[in-house]
Amino acid sequence: MKGFPVAIKEDSTIMYSRFLQTCDIPEKETRIEPFTLVIFGASGDLSQRKLLPSVFYIFRDDVLVNGFALLGFDRTALNDEQYRTVIKEAVREFGREPFDEEKWDEFSSRMNFMSGNIEQDEKYEELRKKLEQIAIPNAGGRRNVIYYMAVPPSVTPVIVKKLQEHDLCKGEFRTKVIVEKPFGYDLRSATELNRILTDAFDENQIYRIDHYLGKDPVQNIIFFRFTNSIFEEVWNRHYIDNVQITVAEDIGIEHRGIFYEHAGVVRDIVQNHILQLFGLIAMEPPTAFTADFIRDEKLKILRAVHHMDDDYIDRFMVRGQYGPGKVHSKEAPGYRQERNVSPSSTVPTFFAGKFYIDNLRWAGTPFYIRTGKRLPKRVTEICLQFKRLPVKLFGRTCDKLEPNLLVLTIQPDEKISLRFGVKYPYSESQIYHVNMVFSYSEAFRIKIHPPYERLLIDCMRGDLTLFVREDTVEEMWEIVDPIISRWEENPPEGFPNYAAGAWGPPAANRLIEGESRQWITG
Ligand code: BG6
Question: Which atom of ligand 1 is nearest to the CA of 247?
Fold first, then answer.
């Protein structure tokens, strides 16, 4: 199959998208133009734990070009040498693999540091001069700069406005900006943040990171759905009884009490990671695998989420907060006992809820969502439960007819399993349910870039597919804002309502069991 575009294969009924890659186009290479990464908040927690270890490993794996330079900006009074030492320790501690001394020397020679207050105008002139000194031009003579906002959400708008005032967003440098979640605090603040960002940059310069989209099994969802006729044909309300998405964490809030007291579970996980999974599992096929086609389809599904009024929220949404308990047989404190948390906090650490999508594919099919901290184990799973057959032909009448299940496990074991019934050997008519499992690690013995690294590389390459678009961010807030306000206006009684190590409060089970179903992940 050569040439472009390809319309219809001569001998069959298979249609090809006119956007399809032809066979003579090689796989995407990780070719990156020279660029300078400017990190705001360069000595903060995010930079030390995640960002700089990831950049270092990308460098170590020879993905970065020779023309790579790094410029850290923070208020800490450090010189280049001291900054390198701080980050070296961080990479040693938080890096995913044993430290590579030789590569580190090469890497650190490209690291520069600027100390100062982000509100001072003169700092931005200093930044320009520094960039002129260290940024290596590409073949066309342009200097590529990526700004990374590793700062609290309230600080991002201040920096972006200053960059704009000092003409550092467009013009002399060819720039991109990476923004970390949370994107705002509610719809109003997200819209304001987007306005500030899009005033300063074009939308295609803006990379909003949701690290769930960098996980390979998450990306696989649409490949799996739209390449396999056995699943695609039954992926709808006619065959699927319900869909469940569980993002369970066994950890508590760790050192992030201040952040979590302002966020809570809905802002932290539901508004972003879960709604992204929801979009991928429910969306229509994109016209092609390109950033905007995919993002358009995700947006359409979010727009079709059934409106939830107060009465619906009270009936079908469950909140919880963990008290002291045991996780993996070890004592764990309650949320209210964590550092920087109010002893009478009403912030939820657990969410369960039922959603509907008002479109032809899904009308009437419930999507049950559940997430929480200090649950019995860490697991992210999407389960599709198929409808049961209307007649039972085999087994004893007292046996329950189990439904078929398709389970996509995103983490910690990346796998896909299909559950179905077979005849138990030598029995008369006994049905036994088995799982057919595809495991990523067994099937592919290749190294997959961790999500952060994958997303950074995509940004360096200019691929926006796995980043969240402005309109999608706002739509996700449209969905969760009513839940958050309803709960904030009506503080819960009886928090904490689940012990660390339990699967949330009893109401989470009642939500689904009351509808003659049960949580599959567990
Ligand atoms: C982050 C949340 O976005 O995702 C954290 O702020 C959460 O609270 C984390 O622990 C979960 O990510 P992962 O990749 O471990 O599932």
Answer: 16
